[in-house]
Amino acid sequence: MPELPEVEAARRAVQDNCVGKKILNCVVADDPKVIDGVSPSELQASVVGKTIVSARRKGKNMWLQLDSPPFPSFQFGMAGAIYIKGVAVTKYKRSAVNDEDQWPSKYSKFFIELDDGVELSFTDKRRFARVRLLKDPTSVPPISELGPDALLEPMTIEEFTESLHKKKTEIKPLLLDQSYISGIGNWVADEVLYQARIHPRQTASTLSDESCAALHKSIKEVIEKALEVGADSSQFPSNWIFHSREKKPGKAFVDGLLSCFVFKRKLSIFCYMDPITLSFMLKFPIIHLKEYIYL
């Protein structure tokens, strides 16, 4: 699923290549599951002739700010992606479509041509994304229900620590709760918890001040580092657990160490490198304990 780094990389590409340009043509897919609450013809008529003023984002949602409302808004879902013809835009790999043989792709849901010839397409091959036409995207769900953006509206360490100590839920589900912090999904949550050396099932309120500070730092550093490389996962640091997410249980080795505990819950893989963490982890009920290796 595209998360904050991928959506922000798409926003930046739109900001760099499309702002200040007029929309000459628009093609909207006849797909009422994705095109939400508006007909294709109404969406097309509402944007043609308008100028793109900026590209905006909150959490995993992006919208085009035009010179007058309403504005097209994109909820990326499981596989939404932005393509700009001739421009490299990083996509979450499960979102990628082949746009070389057919442009726009058969998965295109929203396509615009700008007055300088630039062409943009929002694609979704799994049909969990949503494209809406909104007068004020920030005033209505889903954006109005989001918590502070993890990049643009970070809590202070003091605010973050205080809020965590009030939460009686496990830390990973809390980070995934978009009403708490928006933009963090599975891979970012896995990474920041791993970098902070925090068990994903530890209750948030039991975290020490030091752990809260470590988590606050890792959220900032992981997101900023991902954006430094344009959300291109092949350029993520080699010691990130991201590179082991899809390896078979028992085969994920991180930080150059051969001692590793592998725990798989849904699509998440967590590696813990020391016996203290291992003994702590075993105190919890575990869903799908596959294998562990400690050498």
Automatic annotation (TrEMBL):
Catalytic reactions on record: 2'-deoxyribonucleotide-(2'-deoxyribose 5'-phosphate)-2'-deoxyribonucleotide-DNA = a 3'-end 2'-deoxyribonucleotide-(2,3-dehydro-2,3-deoxyribose 5'-phosphate)-DNA + a 5'-end 5'-phospho-2'-deoxyribonucleoside-DNA + H(+); Hydrolysis of DNA containing ring-opened 7-methylguanine residues, releasing 2,6-diamino-4-hydroxy-5-(N-methyl)formamidopyrimidine
UniProt-listed Pfam families: Fapy_DNA_glyco, Fpg-like_C, H2TH
Superkingdom of source: Eukaryota
InterPro entries per UniProt: Fpg-like_C, FPG_cat, FPG_Glyclase, FPG_N, H2TH_FPG, Ribosomal_uS13-like_H2TH
Keywords, sorted A to Z: DNA damage, DNA repair, DNA-binding, Glycosidase, Hydrolase, Lyase, Multifunctional enzyme
SUPFAM superfamilies: N-terminal domain of MutM-like DNA repair proteins, S13-like H2TH domain
Domain Formamidopyrimidine-DNA glycosylase catalytic: start-end pairs: 2-129
Family statement: Belongs to the FPG family.
UniProt xrefs under PANTHER family: FORMAMIDOPYRIMIDINE-DNA GLYCOSYLASE (PTHR22993:SF9)
Subunit structure of this chain's protein: Monomer.
UniProt protein name: Formamidopyrimidine-DNA glycosylase, variant 2
Naturally occurring in which organism (per UniProt): Stylosanthes scabra
Gene (name only): FPG1_1
